[in-house]
Amino acid sequence: xxxxxxxxxxxISLAVLAVCSVILGLTALLDADLPDGLERLLGxxxxxxxxxxxxxxxxxxxxxxxxxxSMP
Length: 72
What we know:
Number of helices: 2
Largest sheet: none
Order of helices and strands: HH
Distance between the termini: 25 Å
Number of domains: 1
Shape: elongated
Structural class: mainly alpha
Helix content: over 70%
Radius of gyration: 16 Å
Strand content: under 5%
Protein backbone atom coordinates (compact mmCIF):
# COMPACT_ATOMS: atom_id res chain seq x y z
CA UNK A 1 0.00 0.00 0.00
CA UNK A 2 1.15 3.50 -0.69
CA UNK A 3 1.97 5.97 2.05
CA UNK A 4 -1.12 8.04 1.19
CA UNK A 5 -3.43 5.03 1.44
CA UNK A 6 -1.99 4.06 4.82
CA UNK A 7 -2.45 7.62 6.05
CA UNK A 8 -6.06 7.64 4.84
CA UNK A 9 -6.74 4.28 6.49
CA UNK A 10 -5.19 5.53 9.73
CA UNK A 11 -7.23 8.76 9.67
CA ILE A 12 -10.54 7.02 8.96
CA SER A 13 -10.02 4.34 11.60
CA LEU A 14 -9.01 6.98 14.16
CA ALA A 15 -12.13 9.02 13.38
CA VAL A 16 -14.38 5.96 13.70
CA LEU A 17 -12.77 5.04 17.02
CA ALA A 18 -13.17 8.59 18.29
CA VAL A 19 -16.81 8.97 17.27
CA CYS A 20 -17.84 5.57 18.64
CA SER A 21 -15.97 6.11 21.89
CA VAL A 22 -17.42 9.57 22.44
CA ILE A 23 -20.98 8.44 21.77
CA LEU A 24 -20.70 5.33 23.96
CA GLY A 25 -18.87 7.26 26.68
CA LEU A 26 -21.34 10.12 26.79
CA THR A 27 -24.36 7.82 26.90
CA ALA A 28 -22.77 5.91 29.81
CA LEU A 29 -21.81 9.12 31.58
CA LEU A 30 -25.24 10.70 31.13
CA ASP A 31 -26.98 7.41 31.92
CA ALA A 32 -28.86 7.70 28.63
CA ASP A 33 -30.24 4.70 26.82
CA LEU A 34 -29.37 4.05 23.20
CA PRO A 35 -31.41 1.62 21.17
CA ASP A 36 -29.88 -1.83 21.54
CA GLY A 37 -29.16 -2.16 17.82
CA LEU A 38 -27.32 1.16 17.70
CA GLU A 39 -25.26 0.31 20.76
CA ARG A 40 -24.27 -3.03 19.25
CA LEU A 41 -23.47 -1.39 15.90
CA LEU A 42 -21.16 1.13 17.57
CA GLY A 43 -19.45 -1.65 19.48
CA UNK A 44 -18.94 -3.68 16.30
CA UNK A 45 -17.56 -0.64 14.48
CA UNK A 46 -15.16 -0.13 17.38
CA UNK A 47 -14.02 -3.74 17.19
CA UNK A 48 -13.47 -3.51 13.43
CA UNK A 49 -11.68 -0.15 13.52
CA UNK A 50 -9.24 -1.14 16.26
CA UNK A 51 -7.19 -3.75 14.34
CA UNK A 52 -7.32 -1.55 11.22
CA UNK A 53 -5.90 1.31 13.27
CA UNK A 54 -3.20 -0.96 14.70
CA UNK A 55 -2.24 -2.24 11.24
CA UNK A 56 -2.06 1.28 9.80
CA UNK A 57 -0.01 2.49 12.78
CA UNK A 58 2.53 -0.30 12.32
CA UNK A 59 2.77 0.41 8.59
CA UNK A 60 3.29 4.13 9.28
CA UNK A 61 6.02 3.36 11.82
CA UNK A 62 7.78 0.99 9.42
CA UNK A 63 7.65 3.54 6.61
CA UNK A 64 9.01 6.23 8.90
CA UNK A 65 11.78 3.94 10.10
CA UNK A 66 12.74 3.06 6.51
CA UNK A 67 12.81 6.73 5.62
CA UNK A 68 15.08 7.68 8.50
CA UNK A 69 17.46 4.79 7.75
CA SER A 70 17.86 5.86 4.15
CA MET A 71 18.77 9.43 5.09
CA PRO A 72 22.49 10.19 5.38
